[in-house]
Design brief:
The structure is a homodimer. Chain A is an alpha/beta fold. Chain A has eleven helices and eleven strands. In chain A, helix 3 crosses helix 5, helix 6 packs across helix 7 and helix 6 crosses helix 11. The two termini of chain A are about 20 Å apart. Chains A and B meet through helix 8 and helix 9 of A and helix 8 and helix 9 of B.
Chain lengths: ~290, ~290
Amino acid sequence: MRVALDLLGGDHAPDAVIDGALLAVDRDPAVEVVLVGPPAVAAALLAARGRSLPVVAARESVGMDEDPARGVRAKRDATVRTIHALVRSGSCDAAVSVGPTGAVLAGAVLTLGRISSRPAVAVVVPTAAGPVVLLDAGATSETTPEQLVSHAVLGTAYAQALGTAHPRVGLLNVGTEPGKGDQLRKDAFALLERAPVRFVGNVEGHDVPRGGPADVVVTDGFTGNVLLKAIEGASTQDLPRSALLLGVDGITVVGHGASDGEDVAACVAHAARLVGEGLLERLRATLNVGAA
Amino acid sequence: MRVALDLLGGDHAPDAVIDGALLAVDRDPAVEVVLVGPPAVAAALLAARGRSLPVVAARESVGMDEDPARGVRAKRDATVRTIHALVRSGSCDAAVSVGPTGAVLAGAVLTLGRISSRPAVAVVVPTAAGPVVLLDAGATSETTPEQLVSHAVLGTAYAQALGTAHPRVGLLNVGTEPGKGDQLRKDAFALLERAPVRFVGNVEGHDVPRGGPADVVVTDGFTGNVLLKAIEGASTQDLPRSALLLGVDGITVVGHGASDGEDVAACVAHAARLVGEGLLERLRATLNVGAA
């Protein structure tokens, strides 16, 4: 199991990334990490720690202040492209970055391609009633009703890979009654009733941190991002340190920009687990997409 | 100080409403409560408690499952109309209901009129860094950039009435950098930079429960409702039991449908405090609206 890791992503790169890589391989002998970044930087950091890891060269990074899609297209030697090129070629099984999510997503779409029209960021929120898969947690602010259905299908396959046999899907809304919400929710509700998922109707903001009515909660990326950050701000419990890009043709896990070594190690372990569960094959089968 | 209280609003009406009314008047001798509902019901409940309160007759209520605007227009004897008629006539200084917010809002707009194009539900979230006024917490799911500016102006006057001299206004978004978010946020950001408020830029979901960057946070009613319920679901602390309808030409306080007597008493006390602070006069002055 080989994971391509972006050495230049995150506020505490490259140190936190190297520390996370070493933690991950030390904890799970089945996991190999390939560092993707400037070889001289990697060599110096590894030497300082008396360790060695495979390194693949990539010398550019896409910053928080750049337009992600434009930045990724302009920088052919960007780490967020190379981690995905390694997955596409079969050299690695998954990609991990704690750099800007928009740039990682752009690199994934450009290099791996998509298996749904609009990829989403999926986060697993631990609750007393079991894990809740929330998507989109921030890939795209503007969403269509059809894309919310696509999120429901992808989220169902993800929840199944995580162990829920028949995931219940809820539409995030401002009340549980049908007919609630803006036009997007009204239209999505009608489509979800006919979609090949176990749709249980509208759920509300508190149903994500508390769990209960739904195993998968779908929403637009604006609301999902605000919701997740509100839970983080209000909660004393730790939220997951990693998220999955769902809808690209590969396994890509992203983390907070503020990730430390432990957080990076959690992202690598998450990616390795999803590879082991055969998530991509499940998603392709669900969506009737052939292997690349 | 007289508060008109909807006897028929809420899941536990009329008992919880009567109990709340009695708690409120017992705690603050300056507060009088006028019960608005079926006189026979009020008389029986008061007799059972060995108490008396003034009662004004209104015999209809608007349910959770009704279209609020249509229901309020059709029911001329609805409590959510009569509580506002008492304010309009000057018999009472404020109205309180823990019935469906949409119906209370429709009753307020129909009976009192508006002082802004789109009223909002404003909630005060207590944080370690001081109170944060969040609006819109659920009056209207679809919002325009101009309405977000109106929310900023109203929220500023509200925060001033609550004691913050120069409130900082933040736009709820998915990141702090300018240019973040959907078209609504991009357009609202540009307008807020030129608006007569102390605009401090974008804030994120965690900035509402934690406080810090802004005293007033503006957003659409869909996102605001989801955010508030997420905080309630994730938090161990009690959130405020009352919210203010901001933008109608009067003081109207609403509460949760699940309100018990303590919650109703908190709503009455909140309304009385805002009357005492001269909130409506401040709002009218800020918006250059003459007294009705």
